[in-house]
Design a protein that fits this description.
The protein has helices at about 10-15, 40-50, 65-70, 85-100, 115-120, 180, 185-190, and strands spanning about 20-25, 30, 35, 50-55, 85, 105-110, 125, 150-155, 160, 170, 175, 195, 215, 220-225. It is of the alpha/beta class and about 240 residues long. The strands form four sheets. The chain has a five-stranded parallel sheet with strand order 5-4-1-13-14. A five-stranded parallel sheet has the order 7-6-8-9-12. A two-stranded antiparallel sheet has the order 2-3. Helix 4 crosses helix 5 (about 115-120). The radius of gyration is 19 Å and the shape is globular.
Length: about 240
């Protein structure tokens, strides 16, 4: 049942009830590179109260180290170990530890540089799905295609994995297509659904924490900040939809 927090007492009750606070990033902490008003102050307040903070994102364009730089710019206190992106878990750890990709095999990456960086950290070879030569509207011809038989997994930023299945995500300039939309053609061609390992899949949220004392911005108890895609009208009244941000 959704409840709208209106008074100081409501917020104090939530602060007392939860020890671990998990935050989405896009649409919750910032839009693009623009911090959302009050976000830094809220995080500082939670740290002063001794709360454990975790940052979870389905954005696979950046590695954890690159994301740490983004946190630093607006003055957000965060360590690399507190940042959990689908690039690090979905791509790297899942491929190496869960499906146990042989070291002589490669991953074909349909994503950004952050995904490839995290794969390298796990000792996994990858080939370019982000080469500018591939970003073309020219017709594709099998006559010029050479199959690489060492490719054992396809990762959308043997197994068909997606870092997330978000249809859209908020940017500084508006809503843009997410990995769920860009992977949709592969679903249709392969006639199968991929394994999704970004949030809210359990694989990404496999932290050592007490779910009864944990709250997520953006299951576990959740709260919606209404700065992303979801509006108040989406979660109240007769036209309730599933929250997206």
């Amino acid at each position: 049942m959704a409840a709208h927090l209106s008074f100081k007492e409501d917020y104090e009750s939530s602060l007392d009830q939860y020890d671990t606070w998990m935050f989405d990033c896009d649409g919750v902490l910032w839009h693009g590179d623009c911090p959302i008003d009050g976000a830094v102050e809220v995080l500082d307040n939670l740290r002063k109260r001794g709360k454990r903070l975790l940052f979870v994102t389905n954005d696979a364009r950046k590695s954890r180290k690159s994301y740490k730089n983004k946190f630093d710019q607006p003055g957000v206190q965060a360590t690399v170990d507190e940042i959990h992106g689908s690039a690090i878990y979905a791509a790297a750890v899942y491929a190496s530890s869960v499906i146990k990709l042989p070291k002589d095999k490669k991953v074909y990456v349909i994503e950004m540089s952050g995904l490839k960086e995290e794969l390298r950290e796990e000792g996994i070879a990858s080939i370019e799905g982000t080469d500018p030569a591939d970003n073309t509207l020219e017709p594709f011809s099998l006559a010029n295609f050479t199959l690489d038989r060492d490719v054992a997994a396809v990762l959308c930023g043997l197994d068909f994995l997606v870092t997330n299945d978000d249809s859209t995500y908020p940017s500084a300039d508006g809503v843009v297509l997410g990995a769920g939309s860009t992977s949709a053609p592969l679903r249709f061609v392969l006639r199968r659904d991929p394994i999704c390992i970004g949030k809210p899949a359990k694989t990404m949220l496999d932290f050592k924490l007490d779910p009864t004392r944990t709250i997520v911005a953006g299951g576990l108890a959740t709260f919606i900040v209404l700065t992303g895609i979801t509006s108040k009208e989406d979660i109240t009244g007769p036209n309730i939809t599933s929250p997206r941000q």
